[in-house]
Amino acid sequence: MKSTGKTHIAHLVDIAVQHGLRKVVVSPGSRNAPLVIALDLHPKIEIFLVHDERSAGFMALGMAEESGEPVAITCTSGSAPANYTPAITEAYYRQIPLMVWTADRPSSLIDQGDGQTIRQKSMFSNFIKAEFQLPDEPKGHQIKLSDELVNYAFHEVMQVPKGPVHINIPLAEPLYELSNEPIQPLYNSLQIKKNGLSKEEQLHIKKTWAQAEKKLIIIGQMPSGYLTIEKWQPILADPSVAILVENTANFIHFERFCHTIDRTLALIQPNEVEKYRPDLLVSMGGAIISKRIKSFFRQHKPKWNWRIGHYHFEEDTYQSLTRFFHTHPNELIACIGQEEIMPLSNFGSQWKQLDFVSADRMEGYLLNAPFSDLKAFELILDTIPDGANIHMGNSSVVRYCQLFNPVRGMRYYSNRGVSGIDGSSSTALGIALESPNRLNVLISGDISFLYDSNALWNHYLPSNFRMIVINNGGGGIFKIIDGPKSTAQLDYFFAETEVDLKSLCAAYSLDHMAVKNEDEFLLACSSFYNDSNERPIILEVQTKGNENEDVLSAYFRALNSSN
User: Residue 130 is part of a domain; what is its CATH number?
Assistant: First the structure.
């Protein structure tokens, strides 16, 4: 098979294929030419060409998130790989298998005034699962060493907890030569280790669970299907267990779960705190969006606090951690379910009753609420077609979405590992490409949309992709959170923008629609979701930024008004 003339690079690509790699997002350059040649000539590799490395990184992140399989990114040397940093950090904190291949100058040229040359070795060391540097122009036995490093890299990227792995690849000129030599790399199939509960851990779990009168499980971000509802049936029958779930957990069970944490928490009065403080707090999944619940548990600490799952480090989100169990949450739930249920309180029912009351009050408030960000989210979430993937931009968007109950059959996505606004569109695009049979709808803020507009600068925008942009004139989150609005420098945080989104869409040959009230929005929905559209459509929802804060504040007052 014809490939690059650099044998170790031909080996790298073939080993990658044997480990299951099928897709690579490539950014143009010269130093990574041997990689591009080897990838393009391999019959089992699909290449996606994306010019902007930052967008490329997030697009690959979305593809790897949706498939659960490694996706590689590769670029030229110098400042180019530095643009991968935001996507790599997100992959690290979300345990997403991203393989990072950075072409580099030969080691002898580092810090010698050569163009596009920086210190690339270990450049991602604070947020990478593992890193390797291939030998400079290996020959003979050094090629075997290079092969071994590549094998170990793929073992690391898929070993639980998964995560990004960096291979830095020094390459000397010539870069474009070809070879017909047979490719016979050293391939090692490495076994994935599985962690389970020890007998001591199982005894501790059963004993503590039986002692705790008030138990609360809080579930953060997870992929769809990660938790098995059948294993939860014994716990669902226990009224002493409260279960708080954000929509990013993709675990929907309305009968027992509280899905709208901030909305529910708003009803708890200061003299009722002890009534809703758990004895045992069990957390599982990734990031929790609600700052209010973090503050609640940090101030009112449980007696026991367990963290369950596979992570790169043992985080203590609620500052009261007593045990960390390195196992799949299903195993812990199954362990608890082995024992006979002896309800010790109605703690779970109390939390769920608050959830019911908050839902009724919210519905009453929204009946007469003016068109605003809050009202727009009610309309958007009510009209998205069933079975869609919903992608939530960060800052105010993902927070507004938590105020509404999730919908069965929907899947919810957001970059909550680092919670940056810098790659929401590119990540959603990557997921859309990996789920061609599902409609993918991105809800983005205007600043986030502008920040990642290069996501529209490629040839892979699929027909199953839609974008809704909430244009409130700037960073609305800074008028919602405490702090910025109390300063004389609010304008520096709010960062008002006057970019014409219609003109920006025209630059990328995308259809644009704009609405500024409820009637216009409902009228636009039909054509916006029309299946015959071959290109993504941008729906701009214009709200008055100076009114959104007042509407949201009045909403929370309405929740609390009848207590």
Answer: 3.40.50.970
